[in-house]
Amino acid sequence: MNRHTTRCDVLVVGGGPAGSTCAAELVRAGLDVVVIDKTHFPRDKTCAGWITPQVVSTIGLDLEDYARGRVLQPISGFVTGVIGAEPHRIRYGDTVSYGIRRCEFDHYLLERSGARLRLDEPVERIERQGAGWRVNGDIESAMLVGAGGHFCPVASYLGARVGRAERVIAAQEAEFLAQDDSCLARPEEPELYFCRNLSGYGWCFRKGDFLNVGLGRIGHHGLAGSVREFWDWLAERRRVPAGPMPRMKGHAYLLHGFGARRRIDDAIALVGDAAGLAYPQSGEGIRPAVESGVLLARVIAAAAGDYSRVRLQVYIAELERRLGEPGIPPGSASSLPSRLRALLGRNVIAQPWFARRVVLDRWFLHAHESALPSLASAGAAGQTTVQAPLRA
Ligand SMILES: Cc1cc2nc3c(=O)[nH]c(=O)nc-3n(C[C@H](O)[C@H](O)[C@H](O)COP(=O)(O)OP(=O)(O)OC[C@H]3O[C@@H](n4cnc5c(N)ncnc54)[C@H](O)[C@@H]3O)c2cc1C
């Protein structure tokens, strides 16, 4: 045995929202948890940074505390439509979501998780040791949680063909300082524009002094051209500052129902993007990431050391109850034939009632689904967590 061996009950690989939420719940349940991440925090993450009130509730976020020195942009409306066509402005009056910067949000959640941290250390070696694990040669744990995002090494260990043969959402995005008055994007009203064939959408989202612009859609083919066209169209509408398009950063990830990753085995399980859980209609991944973290933590805590696959199967059942069974969801536009999608794009998405009641309320805000309770939300009940009212 190595003199410097670190031992813990649960090793969480990845300190994003899925990993830090799972770790925080496990620590609250009394387990000894280590989070390992290949980068140091704060770190950048390619993301628009939109979170719903259900996320705020599940992670027990104290908005007043969070807003001290960090960007927390209340959202009370949207501008939405189809790229190239005149959009609609839809106002809710109340705060229905928030904009955050991932470099700040992820750092905050990881620091307050209470787990022991091993940062700046990629996971390179995963070995079985009895019923548990030895990772990178010197960390021993009874249970291993893969929260390393789309390219998670634990997902690869479970057989995922990461980066190959998976039908992904490919996205490009830039977040930059934009204090220029000539830019007409309003902070409280993010702008969402669907591709005409509904294969994805672009966004222009002002958060405090920062502007986040990007486009995501099914598959990589032709993405750079679509992003350039979208940028030029936004520039014509004075939604982005004059001047050259900034360097865009790319990322890909799986939507729930679009992949077939094995999510559990004996003493091992995946959460968040590692498990491919983002909502198929909106691409929102932070809520499924934190919810899967909570669900898995509950199952691990209740297992009292018996982490057999049979015992962990409850986690899969709970995930399916929450997100629906994998398989192309019937409500997803991407399951429709392309000509029908184009017709829908031009005629239905552009209708204000459809945009509000279906696209925003159901697909993006999930106004009909209440927040998942957690130990963190129970602990936060007495503090100043402002719950934004949602109207279904
Ligand atoms: C362009 C774009 C915009 C998006 N916008 C939104 C949005 O507005 N709202 C929303 O809800 N979702 C959005 N998403 C989706 C969202 O970003 C993800 O679903 C979410 O980050 C998933 O969280 P996670 O914790 O599972 O993974 P991640 O946030 O990816 O965290 C994974 C962590 O694992 C670490 N890691 C990776 N490999 C290793 C390794 N070998 N060893 C150790 N550590 C490792 C990484 O450093 C990282 O810190 C967007 C995605 C993209 C691409």
- Rounded to an integer in angstroms, the radius of gyration calculated over CA atoms is 21 Å
The largest pleated sheet is described as:
8 strands, mixed
Sequence stretches where pLDDT stays below 50 over 5 or more residues: 384-392
Please name the CATH architecture: 3-Layer(bba) Sandwich
Helical amount among residues, as a percent range? 25-40%
SSE string, helix = H, strand = E?
A: EHEEHHEEEEHEEEEHEEEEHEEEHHHHH
Distinct ligand kinds = flavin-adenine dinucleotide
The CATH fourth-level homologous superfamily: FAD/NAD(P)-binding domain
Q: What is the CATH third-level topology name? A: FAD/NAD(P)-binding domain
The portion of residues forming beta strands comes to 15-25%
